[in-house]
Amino acid sequence: MPVSAEFAAEQEALTAKSRGLHLVQFWTSSPEIENQVPRPSPKPYLWRWSDMRPHLDWASRAIGVEDAERRSLLFSNPGLGGKYYATQTLLAAYSLYNPGETAPVHRHTSCASRFAIAGDGGYTTVNGEKCLMARGDLIITPAGLWHDHGNDGSEPLIWMDALDLPYVESLNCSLFEFDYFEEVAGSNSHERVKQTRQTIRLESGHSEKTYARGGLVPLFGDEARKRGRHSPKYHYSWAATREALYGMRNEQGSPYEGIIVEYTNPTTGGSVMPNMSFRAQLLRGGEATLPYRDSSSTIYCALEGKGRTQVGDVTLEWQENDVFVAPNWMWRTHTNASPDREAVLYSVSDMPIIERSGVLRRQAKSANGELLDLVPF
Predict the structure, then answer these.
(1) CA atoms of 289 and 291, how far apart (whole Å)
(2) Whole-prediction pTM
(3) Statement: residue 1 has pLDDT above 60
(4) Which residues contact 185 (CB under 8 A, 6 or more apart)?
(5) Domain range holding 5?
(6) 208 and 244 in one domain?
(7) Same structural domain, 19 and 149
(8) Cα 72 → chain centroid
(9) Do 7 and 78 share a structural domain?
(10) pLDDT averaged over every residue in the chain
(11) pLDDT tens for residues 314-361?
């Protein structure tokens, strides 16, 4: 803010003094503070599977899990100055495990997820439940739950990780723990021994069998699991999700997102974890959506088909296994590039953080260009 000539010299001296006292003068900084529109720093960006796969193949031969524990390629958004973040709140990566490999049991304060891309026989064990993976399966590892990974199959296992780690780091609350102990089986002394893998207490399929029937939740079993801030259902199979999407493909759907579903906590109907929303959407042959934007950031993974997504003035051409980012408050549209084949996108967003913070806003444009406030201030 300009000052009169008689105060200009005093202003300059006062500004320098304020800086030395670690004070900021609002009257000189108000344009930066009082945003007229959000200023997202992440950029729309696409990571091509054809570019990533050679790096993963090399890592599978050259990098041992005993050296790195996680053989992962982190998606580093070019707008975030080299940080290992995909958006300002979300971390994402492609990870690979060779047949026979395991990752040691651990837990952390951030919520995490695995979305299977390739391989057979892969699994994540969450709090004693072994969750086998097939392509398109979603497995969640909520904050504070012990989990370990492995590959019992004959092919390399690849999945997409998504975590709310950047958000948790912004709160200075990110912690990891690797010292896991279990009581010695058959011992009366209650001796506890450090382990690198959990004992399997619940076989794969428990989550689906117990929590996958819409509108029905068991009134017995692990009450603490059902009362948590996260879904008690750790494993969401792609077979069930795909059946739901394709079963609705003749419905009108959303003009902005096609046929879209959200993975939910069966005990509350809310998001599966406090800080991330997981969705899958189907675009029918040749379908093109209308523009919309909201105040959340989204990471997409193309699971079926090919198409393009316009984010702001950037066009992202995607095909199977490509990953791309749509930052918050940027107009986006999706187009299925095939006239006779469906396309499917899986996505992770920070929508629950935005909603809980009371700053959610969503706008769209009608077919004739009219601006619509879907969720206004």
Answers:
(1) 7
(2) 0.92
(3) no
(4) 199
(5) 1-34
(6) yes
(7) no
(8) 15
(9) no
(10) 92
(11) 999 999 999 999 999 999 999 999 999 999 999 999 999 999 999 999
